[in-house]
Amino acid sequence: MTVKIAVLPGDGIGPEIVAEALKVLDCLRTEFGLAVETEHALIGGAAYDAHGTPFPKETLDLCRAADSVLLGAVGGPKWEPLDYSLRPERGLLGLRSELALFSNLRPAVLYPQLVSASTLKPEVVSGLDIMIVRELTGGIYFGKPRGRRINDQGEREGYNTLVYSESEIRRIAHSAFQIARKRNKRLCSIDKANVLECTELWREVVIEVGKEYPDVALSHMYVDNASMQLVRNPKQFDVMLTDNMFGDILSDCAAMLTGSIGMLPSASLDKDGKGMYEPIHGSAPDIAGRGIANPIATILSLAMMLRYSLDDAASAERIENAVQKALDQGYRTADIASEGTAKVGTAAMGDAIVAALRAA
Ligand code: NAD
Ligand code: IPM
Ligand code: MN
To answer: Which residues bind Mg(2+) (predicted)?
Structure first.
C-alpha cells in the first residue's frame, strides 16, 4: 500500500530544508522501494499570502487524509504586524490542535562527530541522549480566557490562562512513562509546583500515573532549576516530561547541547500514533534564502516519521546512519562547523546524506 505524506514547507528556511528531506525520501523510493507519495500544501505566512489565512481548510483536509505530515517551519517578520488570528504561527498551532497531536517528542542526541560543535565542554556533553516529552495541545498556549483589554486604570493589559485538566496531564504522562520504559527508565517531570496551582496538579497527577509504572524512577524538578541543570550536567536526564511552554523553552536549550538547533527533530503524535514531523527550530529569517541552513533536523524528522508513524524502523535507521556517515566524512553546515573547518550549504549537506544513503 502506498503511504501518503502531506508536505507543508511553510516559510523562511522551511522550503529549503524540506527540499533536502524530500531528496532523501526520493532516494528511499527509487533505491529502496519505499512506496510513498507526497502532496504539498500551504501553511503559515505562505498560506496567508496566497489565501488570506495561515491555516487553509484544504491544508487541514489534506493532513487529515494523509498518513503523515512533514512540516518545515512557519513565521517571519513580514507577518508580525498581523492580528494574532492571522499570524503564521496560528496555522501550526491550529494543525496541532485540530489533529489532536498532544504528545511532542523532542530527542536531544549529541552525535559523537559534533562534540566540538557544542558550546559545552566535551566531558559534560559527550554521549548526551535526552528525550523531551512535551505536552502540545494544552496549557497556556490554548487556555482561555486570553486576550488584551483596557483595565480599570485605563492601561493596556494582556492575559493568558495556564490550565490543564487531569485527563490532559494523565495522557501525556502515560506517553512519557511508556517512552521511559523503553529507554533508561528514568523520568523527570518538570513543573513550577511551588508557585502555580496548575502545575501543582500536574505533579499530583504524574505521581498517580507513576504508580502504574513502578519500574520507572520518577523525579520532579522545578523548571528554573531544570534549565540550569540542563547546562550544568545534562547527562543526569533520560526522559523529561514538560508542559507546553516549559517544553518549548527547554528544548531550544537542549538543542544547543547537541551542537545546534539545526540538529533537533520532533514528532507530534495523536493517541493512535499518527503524527506530524518537523524540526524544532523556526523559519530562521536571519539566514532564509541564503542556502546555508542545516537540513539535518528536518531529515531526522523524516526518520522519526518512518519509525513512529509508518512502522519502518529499517528506513529510519538507514537515514540516521547516512546522517552520521555524512558527518564522518566531514560535511558541516555553518551552524555546526568548528573554527577552521570547511562549511557546506543546505543542498550540499542534503546531497551528501543522499549519497551516503545510496552507498549503504
Ligand atoms: P529560529 O529557530 O527560527 O531561529 C533562531 C536562531 O537559530 C537563528 O539565528 C537561526 O538562524 C538559527 N537557526 C534555526 N534553524 C536553523 C537551521 N536549520 N540551521 C542553521 N541555523 C538555524 O527562532 P526565531 O528567530 O526566534 O523565530 C523565527 C520565526 O520562526 C518566528 O516567526 C517564530 O515564530 C517562528 N518559529 C517557528 C517554529 C516552527 O515552525 N515550528 C519554531 C520556532 C519559531
Ligand atoms: C516550536 C515553536 C512553536 C511553539 C511556535 C512557532 C508556535 O516555537 O515548535 O517550538 O511555540 O510551539
Ligand atoms: Mn520553539
So the answer is: 224, 248, 252
